[in-house]
């Protein structure tokens, strides 16, 4: 069985900028920058034939490339029981379009629909017993975090390897996106 998900890989420059946010929160387990990504669709456990069907369906996804805005920070969980720290990702129309196409491909491959609300983000740390005041201080200190617009030219099928140290993610297959429409390219260069 393979544990897989579909996501956006991040360029080294973005991973480096995100990595520099780490530290200053007791009880935080900061992720290895190699594991930073934006999840489009968590799939979970699949067997080899299902993985092959998913790969074939994802290869048929047609969507244009686009720019992705990454900025701001926050946490999941409650104020008194936070579970993870993240960097924000703008849920733009092109990102939502790609997410929808990936969801449709997963369903076409025989997987169920995704009933989770899409909240694009990049997980930076997992929390266990982290003091809420320290997290709030960290968020205030980094709330203006931004990186230059990232070009999204494709998406990736990742395999997740679980261990007592946490998960490690292995890219299995990359899927290119089409160049942006000519009118969008002309508008962005004007």
Range of strand content: 35-45%
Shape designation:
globular
- The CATH first-level class comes to Alpha Beta
Per CATH, what is the topology? Cyclic Phosphodiesterase, Chain: A
Structural class: alpha+beta
How widely separated are the two ends?
Answer: 50 Å
Mean pLDDT, to the nearest integer, reads: 94
User: So, the CATH homologous superfamily?
Assistant: Cyclic phosphodiesterase
Total helices: the number is 5
User: Which CATH architecture would you pick?
Assistant: Alpha-Beta Complex
**Oligomeric form:** single chain
Computed Rg: 17 Å
| Total of domains | 1
Helix content: 25-40%
Unreliable segments (pLDDT under 50, ≥5 consecutive)?
none
Strand arrangement, major sheet = 3-1-9-10
State the total count of DSSP E strands: 10
The run of helices and strands is: EHEEHEEEHEHEEEH
Largest sheet: 4 strands, antiparallel
Features:
4-stranded antiparallel sheet, 37% strand, 190 residues, 10 strands, Cyclic Phosphodiesterase, Chain: A, 5 helices, alpha+beta
Describe the structure.
With 190 residues, the protein is α+β, with helices and mostly antiparallel strands. It has a single domain (2-178), classed as Cyclic phosphodiesterase (Cyclic Phosphodiesterase, Chain: A, Alpha-Beta Complex). It is built from five helices and ten strands, in the order βαββαβββαβαβββα. It has helices at 12-19, 48-59, 93-108, 132-142, 182-189, and strands spanning 2-9, 28-30, 37-46, 66-68, 70-77, 82-89, 121-127, 150-152, 154-163, 166-176. The strands form three sheets. A four-stranded antiparallel beta sheet has the order 3-1-9-10, with helices on one face. It has a four-stranded antiparallel beta sheet with strand order 2-7-6-5, with helices on one face. Strand 9 and strand 10 form a beta hairpin.
């Amino acid at each position: 069985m393979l544990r897989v998900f579909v996501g956006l890989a991040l360029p080294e420059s973005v991973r480096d900028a995100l990595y520099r946010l780490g530290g200053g929160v007791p009880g935080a387990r900061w992720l290895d920058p190699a594991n930073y990504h934006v999840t489009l669709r968590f799939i979970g456990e699949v067997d080899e034939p299902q993985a092959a069907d998913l790969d074939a369906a994802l290869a048929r996804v047609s969507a244009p490339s686009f720019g992705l805005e990454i900025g701001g920070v926050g946490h999941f969980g409650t104020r008194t029981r936070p579970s993870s720290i993240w960097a924000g990702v703008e849920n733009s129309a092109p990102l939502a379009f790609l997410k929808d196409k990936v969801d449709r491909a997963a369903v076409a491959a025989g997987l169920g629909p995704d009933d989770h609300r899409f909240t694009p983000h990049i997980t930076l740390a997992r929390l266990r017993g982290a003091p809420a005041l320290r997290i709030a201080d960290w968020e205030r200190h980094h709330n203006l975090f931004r990186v230059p617009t990232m070009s999204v030219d494709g998406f990736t099928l990742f395999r997740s390897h679980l261990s007592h140290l946490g998960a490690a993610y292995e890219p299995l297959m990359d899927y290119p996106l089409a160049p942006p429409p000519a009118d969008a390219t002309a508008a962005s260069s004007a």
